Amino acid sequence: MLASTLQVLILGLALGGVYALMASGLTLIFGVMRIVNLAHPIMIIAGAFVAYWLFRLYGLDPILAMPIAASVLFVIGVVLYKLVFEKEAASAKYSEMTVLLTFAVALCADGLLGALFSNTQRVTTPAYATDAFIFGTVFIPKGQAYAGAISLLVIGALLAFLNFSRFGTAIRATTQNRAAAQLMGVNVGRVSLITFGIGIALAGAAGALVSFLFSFFPAKHWEWIAILMSLVVLGGMGKLMGAILSAFLLSVIAAFVGTYFGSTWSTMTFFLALFVILLVRPQGLLGDRQEEA
Amino acid sequence: MPELLEVRNVVAGYGSGPAILNGADLHVSPGEIQCIIGPNGAGKSTLMKAITGLLPIRSGEIRLMGERIDRLRPDQILQKGIAFVPQERALFPRMSVRENLRMGGYTIRDERELKRRIDDVLHRFPILSERASQHAGTMSGGQQQMLAMARTLIVRPKIVMLDEPSLGLAPMIVQQMFDIMRQLRDSGMTVLLVEQNAVVGLKNADRGTVLDLGRTLFSGPARDILKDPRVRELYLGKAAA
Fold it and tell me: B193 CB contacts (<8 Å, ≥6 apart)?
């Protein structure tokens, strides 16, 4: 009993790390630009495709493909921001417009990936994806363990960048008070552009991990929108630490629910959390009412 | 004395709404404290935002030492030497006092120079030095206002602009603020402020400018404006004039 509980806890934490990486880009983009990026999950799928083809064509390990997937998606993010969002920044209905625009981007990207690669299920199969660490009666799949650990490393690097670099501090300042950041000499247009790129790059990096954790196909991103939104809302919109904490919390709860009540209920955990937090504490775990207003 | 800042016939408004400034003029000389007064809705804060580039102007021109700045971004205007403390103080609430001061010097690339300037400012404001690690959002209104002013000094601007610095503060703290402004003026800086409380503002200023309905009505020495019957009329109605 104790061993199985420990195993579920470790698996929940490992997957929580990957969810945290997926949600970090989404909440970073919202924090700086107030863009609810419904296209974030399709960018994760795009990152998974980059890793998949590098694995298929060159035998490159998906973990080693992470920086390449992140770089490709960074460029896509920057181009997307320039083409689609930059002009809208001055619009009075900016937030509403960005929801519609990101939805349109998600549809277009879904269609494009479907046309290019078809909607068949794919997965990369490095050796560790089917191997496991065995400690007595505790069984930890290596793929999940590696993905969780690497997600934590990437998130640690992101936090260090945000807290200790000059540009990272400018991103945090813009998140807390955009007008004040401008008055301090921050070019918030440039901060927005780079942050959007970084957010999409994080989706790409997460996608490389997804490529061996789950089977994926372009239309799969629709399943992830609600899951990622629940993490971001639970943590407090735009609060990076909140999204990370809620990713671990919900992932562990979902792992236990899945073990004891079945996998259908595991997914329901995220939706229920979304409903409950909106009813009880709409500003999220780390948000405060003042900022919400 | 040559003008440091000139605002000529500026028209500005928010989005596609009606103009709030309808041909405002302003002349600021170096080394003075100038106070802009006017009734609610006169366009005082809007004028501040137009000067700092937070609000694009529709027509007219704004010049700093003869150079047009009305097409520049706020970060570029700061680099030209205009620092601004808006009404809501614009602090970063989840950053410490020291981090807020560091953000004040965001445009300074030399790390040693930045540290030296932060230490200078903390020496000038001992209350901030005591609270260097405290989050700005947890400080009192007076301390926040002091931090907001201190933060602008890091870049050693030519002009410090303050929008309603006395708002919500106890009279003793307000007096401290004006003492600091006089110190800044005496050290060669120029201070431009907006005050809803015209008497307090003008008593502490060298010059005043009166704004109403987005236009400049008149300007002159602050003491003269205090006695001007037109100001009494503007604030208290015709019967009082």
Answer: B33, B34, B35, B36, B161, B162, B163, B165, B181, B201, B205
Are B149 and B172 in the same domain? no
Q: Which of B121, B156, B191 is the last residue of a domain?
A: B156
Q: Which residues of A touch B151 (CB under 8 A)?
A: 184
At A264, list the tokens.
Answer: 């259908």
A95 vs B: CB within 8 A: no
Of A170, A173, A183, the CB nearest to B84: A183
Taking CA atoms, what residue in A is nearest to B157? A184
B20 and B72, same domain (yes or no): yes
- Is residue B19's pLDDT more than 90? yes
| Partner B contacted by A180 (CB < 8 A) | yes
Residue type, A28: L
Instruction: Write out A160-180 in H/E/C secondary structure.
Output: HHHHHCHHHHHHHHHHHCHHH
The last residue of a domain, from among B114, B140, B156: B156
B150 shares its domain with B161: no
CB atoms within 10 A of CB A46: 23
Greatest mean pLDDT among A30-34, A109-113, A267-271 lies in: A109-113
pLDDT tens, residue by residue, A103-153: 999 999 999 999 999 989 999 999 999 999 998 888 889 999 999 999 999
| B14, B60: one domain | yes
Q: Beta strand pairing status for B207-212 and B215-221?
A: antiparallel
Predicted local distance difference test score (pLDDT) of residue B236: 56
Contacting residues of A for B160, CB less than 8 Å apart: none
* Count: domains in chain A: 1
Looking at this predicted complex, what is its ipTM? 0.81
Q: Do B92 and A176 touch (CB under 8 A)?
A: yes
Residue of chain B with shortest Cα separation from A239: B94
- CATH label of the domain that carries residue A181: 1.10.3470
Q: Across residues B163-175, what is the average pLDDT?
A: 87
Q: Which domain holds residue B102?
A: 86-156
Would you place residue A91 in the very low, low, confident or very high pLDDT band (cuts 50, 70, 90)? Answer: low
Q: Is B76 in the same domain as B38? A: yes
Contact B74, B54 (CB under 8 A): yes
Q: What is the pLDDT of residues A209-263, one digit of tens each?
A: 999 999 999 999 998 998 999 999 999 888 899 999 999 999 999 999 999 898 8
